[in-house]
């Protein structure tokens, strides 16, 4: 293998580790349902069935954005198991029903491959880890070299830290 091929492989592996993810036709997707509030989304998407541990109402503290994570039955981004739907935000770029998060199960319990839509409406591919049933975290290094963290905490249904 020549040096040029090795260099291309190294660059490709480094850029794919924290690559931007293009949702393509799903970029501007919203769940256009009767999503008016977090309580209504919980009622509509989660009530009356057994929930997977990741499902529920979540809060991104830093931005005050409320998200309901539910099974992906919305025909949005096939291949993802869960969709995080914004149910409340004071930020002008976000409206109720916008997709904020996509998650795919991995072989490890509490670990998900996913896409986080940033405040600039750019998609960032990350690995999300449930620290316990009430906290999910992820991080990435941006093109400017700074590290950014995503942290959401469960609002509903709440679980004891001992309840895994």
Overview of the structural elements:
It is a single chain. With 164 residues, the chain is mainly β. The chain has one domain (21-156). The chain is 14% helix and 37% strand. An 8-stranded antiparallel β-barrel has the order 1-2-3-4-5-6-7-8. A hairpin with a 5-residue loop joins β4 and β5 (111-117). The chain is globular and about 45 Å long. Residues 1-27 and 160-164 have low confidence and may be disordered.
The description of the largest β-sheet is: 8 strands, antiparallel, barrel
The count of β-strands is 8
Rounded radius of gyration (Å)? 17 Å
Q: Structural class given helices, strands, pairing?
A: mainly beta
Number of domains in the coordinates? 1
The sequence of SSEs as H and E is HHEEEEEEEE
The low-confidence runs, each spanning 5 or more residues with pLDDT under 50, are 1-27, 160-164
The number of helical runs is 2
Task: Please summarize what this structure is.
With about 160 residues, the protein is mostly beta strands. It contains two helices and eight strands; from the N terminus they run ααββββββββ.
Question: Features of this protein?
Answer:
single chain, 164 residues, mainly beta, 8-stranded antiparallel β-barrel, 8 strands, disordered N terminus, disordered C terminus
Topology diagram in text:
Blueprint: H1 3-17, H2 38-45, E1 56-60, E2 65-71, E3 82-88, E4 99-105, E5 111-117, E6 123-132, E7 135-141, E8 147-156
Antiparallel strand pairs: 1-2, 1-8, 2-3, 3-4, 4-5, 5-6, 6-7, 7-8
């Amino acid at each position: 293998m020549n040096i040029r091929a090795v260099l291309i492989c190294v660059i490709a592996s480094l850029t794919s580790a924290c690559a931007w993810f293009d949702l393509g036709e799903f970029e501007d997707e919203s769940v256009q349902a009767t999503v008016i509030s977090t309580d209504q989304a919980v009622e509509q998407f989660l009530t009356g069935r057994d929930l997977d541990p990741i499902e529920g109402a979540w809060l991104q503290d830093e931005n005050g954005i409320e998200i309901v994570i539910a099974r992906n039955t919305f025909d949005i981004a096939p291949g993802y198991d869960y969709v995080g739907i914004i149910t409340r935000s004071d930020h002008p770029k976000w409206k109720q029903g916008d997709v904020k998060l996509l998650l795919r199960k991995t072989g490890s319990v509490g670990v998900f491959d996913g896409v986080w839509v940033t405040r600039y409406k750019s998609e960032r591919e990350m690995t999300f880890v449930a620290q316990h049933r009430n906290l999910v975290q992820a991080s990435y290094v941006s093109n400017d070299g700074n590290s950014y963290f995503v942290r959401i905490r469960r609002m509903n249904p709440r679980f004891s830290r001992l309840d895994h």
